[in-house]
Write a structure and sequence with these properties.
The chain is globular, with a radius of gyration of 20 Å. The chain has 6 helices and 18 strands. Helix 2 crosses helix 3 and helix 3 crosses helix 4. Strand 16, helix 6 and strand 17 form a beta-alpha-beta unit. It is of the alpha+beta class. The protein has a 7-stranded mixed sheet with strand order 1-2-3-4-5-11-10, covered by helices on one side.
């Protein structure tokens, strides 16, 4: 829907569907050449891959913002190299809006203290500084339907002190991702989705992947080939067993694509186990 300020040339937003193919995304973006690009990290990484395939020169961005998914260090490095500007990551949830944001210093995530009260809990007790816990949010400006102590379902930790930018809002460390996205080894020890998914970033020949777990010590890895002759199965198995244990059962499945969720996101891990922080 176009607003009055669009007609004056301000904030002229264009929306692209995450369900479109990457070559269509790239064609539209090259025509628009936007100053600001906002998107899911997984979608932006696919666009980067398409840029490289077509040997296209990227346009210059003034600002690159990532939302909706965990932004890994590897993805941050790739996006920074491609567009010559480091992404600024926003963390939020549809139910409560923006919860925390990075500034240009990228020293953690500033909690939106003026509109939200954020707790980090382990079970029912507050987490100590530096301790991993679940994010619980109370929204301060929803008048029709207040949201009080809502478990968002993500894992993070508080950072001590303040950001060098001068903002005095409290800080969250890196968001570890969904609390229901944990892999359990044969002994029941939990590993976060981010921790496990990062292990496979360096595997050659894999374009996308997803880990699925229905029982302890057993992981099924769906992967999309980056090229037709890719055979990464042995390397995937070796890497995961080094982290989860030699007894871990690893099953690999080559697929043509990883289906997105209704939200448009690609989940790195789908686990049937209960939240380990309750």
């Amino acid at each position: 829907k176009r607003q009055w300020y669009h007609r004056l040339g301000f904030m002229n937003e264009q929306f692209l569907s995450v369900y479109d193919k990457s070559n269509l995304h790239l064609k539209k973006l090259q025509k628009l050449r936007p100053h600001v690009l906002v998107g899911f990290p997984s979608v932006l990484m696919v666009i980067v891959d398409e840029l490289r395939k077509q040997h296209s020169m990227p346009w210059k961005l003034k600002l690159l913002i990532t939302i909706g998914e965990v932004l890994t260090a590897e993805d941050r490095r790739t996006l920074s190299e491609q567009w010559s500007t480091g992404p600024i990551d926003f963390y939020g949830a549809n139910e409560v809006g923006h919860v925390a944001f990075q500034c240009v210093e990228r020293h953690g995530y500033h909690i939106n203290l003026d509109s939200l009260h954020v707790e980090i809990l382990v079970g029912n007790r507050p987490a100590t500084v530096g301790e991993r816990g679940e994010i619980v949010v109370t929204n301060l400006d929803l008048r029709v339907m207040p949201i009080i102590r809502y478990r968002v379902g993500d894992i993070a930790q508080r950072i001590e002190g303040y950001c060098p930018c001068g903002c005095r809002f409290p800080l969250l460390g890196h968001i570890a991702g969904r609390s229901d996205g944990f892999i359990l080894n044969t002994d029941g020890e939990p590993f976060s989705a981010l921790e496990v998914s990062l292990l496979l970033k360096s595997v050659q020949g894999v374009k996308q992947y997803r880990l699925l777990q229905e029982r302890k010590g057993h992981v099924r890895v769906q992967w999309v080939a980056a090229r037709n002759d890719a055979t990464p199965q042995e390397e995937i198995t070796k890497i995961l067993r080094e982290r989860l244990g030699a007894n871990a059962q690893i099953e690999t499945e080559r697929v043509s694509e990883i289906q997105r969720e209704i939200s448009g996101k690609i989940l790195a891990v789908i686990s049937s186990f209960a939240n380990p922080f309750y």
